[in-house]
Amino acid sequence: MAITPIKLNAFLMFKLPAAYFCGIRTKYLDNNKCIVKVKHRWINQNPFKSMFWAVQGMAAELTTGALLTSKIKESGKNISMLVASNNASFTKKATGIITFVCEEGQLLDKAISNAIVTGEGQTVWMNSIGTNTDGLQVSSFNFEWTIKLKS
């Protein structure tokens, strides 16, 4: 059974309620791209009346993690995944609806294939860009995912 935006949002509600209550929602997912939106609201703002950086981080991580989860499920193998490192930059105050997009699903194919063939852990860096409703970039997140075939 394929992973869909509806299933991801239900997963958030039951397994990651902090993300769900902050308003993070998956809007689109295919083999190479994931789109997640979050609206600036009282519950997810910082003292400067913009979206708290951690809420942006949750939304950005979801774009990369959803792609990886989908690709692992597609492989049919038992593969573990973990964020080993991350970094971010913030370029504009995050208000309104912020859309995070990761279009790097193709990077995962080779890493998963190598993990299956070699049995060794693999790492892959993935980027997610957050933009406001005017199309202006507000933040950029990079996540270093590690994957390993479970024995």
Give a concise summary.
The chain has 151 residues and is α+β, with helices and mostly antiparallel strands. The protein has helices at residues 5-15, 17-21, 53-75, 106-118, and strands spanning 25-29, 34-39, 79-90, 97-102, 122-131, 137-149. Helix content is 34%, strand content 34%.
Total domain modules: 1
CATH topology heading: Thiol Ester Dehydrase, Chain A
Q: Element order, helices and strands?
A: HHEEHEEHEE
Shape: globular
H/I helix tally = 4
The CATH architecture can be given as Roll
Question: What is the straight-line distance between the termini?
Answer: 23 Å
Class per helix and strand makeup: alpha+beta
Relative strand content: 25-35%
What's the β-strand tally?
A: 6
Mean pLDDT: 96
Q: Give the low-confidence spans.
A: none
- Rg measurement, Å: 15 Å
Strands, helices and their partners?
Blueprint: H1 5-15, H2 17-21, E1 25-29, E2 34-39, H3 53-75, E3 79-90, E4 97-102, H4 106-118, E5 122-131, E6 137-149
Antiparallel strand pairs: 1-2, 2-4, 3-6, 4-5, 5-6
